[in-house]
UniProtKB/TrEMBL annotation:
<dbReference type="GO" id="GO:0004417">
    <property type="term" value="F:hydroxyethylthiazole kinase activity"/>
</dbReference>
<keyword id="KW-0460">Magnesium</keyword>
<comment type="similarity">
    <text>Belongs to the Thz kinase family.</text>
</comment>
<comment type="function">
    <text>Catalyzes the phosphorylation of the hydroxyl group of 4-methyl-5-beta-hydroxyethylthiazole (THZ).</text>
</comment>
<keyword id="KW-0547">Nucleotide-binding</keyword>
<feature type="binding site">
    <location>
        <position position="46"/>
    </location>
    <ligand>
        <name>substrate</name>
    </ligand>
</feature>
<keyword id="KW-0808">Transferase</keyword>
<feature type="binding site">
    <location>
        <position position="194"/>
    </location>
    <ligand>
        <name>substrate</name>
    </ligand>
</feature>
<feature type="binding site">
    <location>
        <position position="121"/>
    </location>
    <ligand>
        <name>ATP</name>
    </ligand>
</feature>
<feature type="binding site">
    <location>
        <position position="167"/>
    </location>
    <ligand>
        <name>ATP</name>
    </ligand>
</feature>
<dbReference type="Pfam" id="PF02110">
    <property type="entry name" value="HK"/>
</dbReference>
<dbReference type="InterPro" id="IPR029056">
    <property type="entry name" value="Ribokinase-like"/>
</dbReference>
<keyword id="KW-0418">Kinase</keyword>
<keyword id="KW-0784">Thiamine biosynthesis</keyword>
<keyword id="KW-0067">ATP-binding</keyword>
<protein>
    <recommendedName>
        <fullName>Hydroxyethylthiazole kinase</fullName>
        <ecNumber>2.7.1.50</ecNumber>
    </recommendedName>
</protein>
<keyword id="KW-0479">Metal-binding</keyword>
């Protein structure tokens, strides 16, 4: 297992390329997600209409599918966007929020796995559910540990041919054969809405970079962990943490 994070060059490439990331994400986190991407030099767009999303997915550099506030109508728009992204050879990332706990999103995510996601990013319970392993998820909250989900993550990576990221106190990034561990962060990151969802957007941005995709995705995890720890050290609580977190991301890779 590799704890290596050659991330500063990747961050510099991200700022230079400024990839356009099409975020079909949940309603709760859109603004936070956009600000995280902007702080790191990427360009966010939230196009969700069923008529426009497929067209835009072919234009954007990467697509994020986050099922946090999924509806039947939004599922149709997401599927159309995925199909157009795949046809245009653009990478897409899946964030399977609360999969395993609710039937619509579980069924939808199982169906779209056949459409070749570049990355799947979820908590331990979500990854175990997608891998077909009984998990103890409670809605968006994981009740399983990242360590316990690692075998399932490797299985899911091999089955889907995607890089799988299982997040927790330590994040694991695996392609089914190789695995990187990414420690760090701070518990305060779990007391604000959207850090995991925003990580998925940063992962999507990093799928556009040249080089080893597994290392680039591990970079995304490392950046978020490091910024979270720095922000927590300067914050009085969740409110001030958000501003400090965005500022910490802004400083990443600029030295």
């Amino acid at each position: 297992m590799q704890p290596d994070l050659p991330d500063i060059p990747a961050l510099q490439r991200l700022r230079t390329r400024s990839p356009l990331v099409h975020c079909m994400t949940n309603d709760v986190v859109q603004t936070f997600t956009a600000n995280v991407l902007l702080a790191l030099g990427a360009s966010p767009a939230m196009v969700i209409d069923a008529g426009e999303a497929p067209e835009f997915a072919a234009i954007a550099d990467a697509l994020l599918i986050n099922v946090g506030t999924l509806t039947e109508t939004r599922a149709q728009a997401m599927r159309g966007a995925i199909e157009h992204a795949v046809a245009a050879n653009k990478p897409w990332t899946l964030d399977p929020v609360a999969v395993g706990a609710l039937s619509l999103r579980t069924r939808f995510c199982q169906q779209i796995l056949s459409l070749q996601p570049a990355v799947i990013r979820g908590n331990a319970s979500e990854i175990l559910a997608l891998a077909g392993v009984n998990s103890g998820g409670r809605g968006v909250d994981a009740t399983d540990t990242a360590d316990s989900a690692l075998p399932g993550a490797r299985t899911l990576a091999r089955q889907s041919c995607a890089i799988v990221v299982v997040t927790g106190e330590v994040d694991y990034v695996t392609d089914g054969e190789r695995t990187c561990s990414v420690p760090g962060g701070d518990p305060l990151m779990t007391r604000v809405v959207g850090t995991g969802c925003a990580l998925s957007a940063v992962v999507a941005a990093c799928t556009t970079l040249p080089g080893d995709r597994l290392e680039n995705v591990a970079t995304a995890c490392g950046v978020m962990k490091r910024a979270g720890a720095e922000a927590a050290s300067q914050s009085a609580g969740p409110g001030s943490f958000v501003a400090a977190f965005i500022d910490a991301l802004w400083r990443e890779g600029r030295a």
